[in-house]
Amino acid sequence: MITIVSGSNRPGNNTQKIAYAYFQSLKDLDVDCKLLSLETHTVHTRNADFEHMEKEFLIPAQQFIFVFPEYHGSFPGILKLMIDNSDVSKCFHNKKALLVGVASGRAGNLRGMEHLTGSLMHMKMIVHPNRLPISLVDKLNYTNNVLTDENTLTLINNQIQAFLSF
Q1: β 96-102/126-127 pair status
Q2: In sequence order, what E strands does 74-119 have?
Q3: How remote is the C-alpha of 4 from its chain's centroid?
Q4: What is residue 12's predicted lDDT score, i.e. its pLDDT?
Q5: Maximum pairwise Cα distance, the chain
Q6: Distance of CA 29 to the CA centre of its chain
Q7: Which parts of the chain have pLDDT scores under 70?
Q8: Could you give the CA distance from residue 115 to residue 106 in angstroms, rounded to a whole number?
Q9: Domains, the chain, ordered by start
Q10: Which among 97, 78, 91, 88 has a CA at the least distance from the CA of 40?
Q11: How far apart are CA 35 and CA 73, in angstroms?
Q12: Are strands 63-69 and 96-102 parallel, antiparallel or unpaired?
């Protein structure tokens, strides 16, 4: 099972739109996957709700796709809080990760993907080398908040195919 983590808790964020495109692409391929949105789950504290989320989305996953925006040249604190509050050995050790950086700027969160790569490798995760930076995320084509930008969808599908055989 693959868990897609939409790594922003800002209401109406573009990260969620990109994460949904990954979810839909995997569903179209009949891949077992779940979409975990940090916009709709509270991860600030390890409590009963957090542990339920952990058991549903993190522990059963063998692979993760982290989709996250650039926050001050790195990745969001809310994503770090989720990781910090989780049982790292049960949730992440020896599992595979695919990274997708999104930004309204031109670099697609390259620096944030590098930072998260280091953290994930420290947690004994295996990070796929094809990390996709999606730049100008706010300028892509969407219809009813669903990504319709053909070039970006092609990049996403190519990255997914590489990850599925990883």
Answers
A1: parallel
A2: 96-102
A3: 5
A4: 87
A5: 41
A6: 18
A7: none
A8: 18
A9: 2-164 (3.40.50.360)
A10: 78
A11: 25
A12: parallel
For 22, residues 6+ apart whose C-beta sits below 8 A from its C-beta are 4, 65, 67, 100, 156, 160
Q: Residue 163 is which amino acid?
A: F
Task: Please give the Cα distance from 22 to 157 (Å, whole number).
Answer: 8
Return the H-helix or E-strand segment holding 163. Answer: helix 150-164
Smallest CA-to-CA distance from 53 within 86, 98, 16 is with 86
What amino acid is encoded at 95 in this protein?
K
Amino acid code (one letter) for 103 = A
Residue located via tokens 């549903």: 56
How far does Cα 67 stand from its chain's mean position? 3
Do residues 26 and 59 make contact, with C-beta atoms less than 8 angstroms apart?
no
Report how far residue 54's alpha carbon sits from residue 57's, in angstroms, rounded to the nearest whole number.
Answer: 5
Q: Distance of alpha carbon 117 from its chain centroid, rounded? A: 12
CA angle 4, 33, 166 (to 5 degrees): 75
Backbone angles phi, psi at 161, to 5 degrees: -60, -40
pLDDT of residue 101: 97
- Please give the DSSP secondary-structure letter assigned to residue 56: I
| pLDDT recorded at residue 106 | 86
Coil, helix or strand for 127?
strand
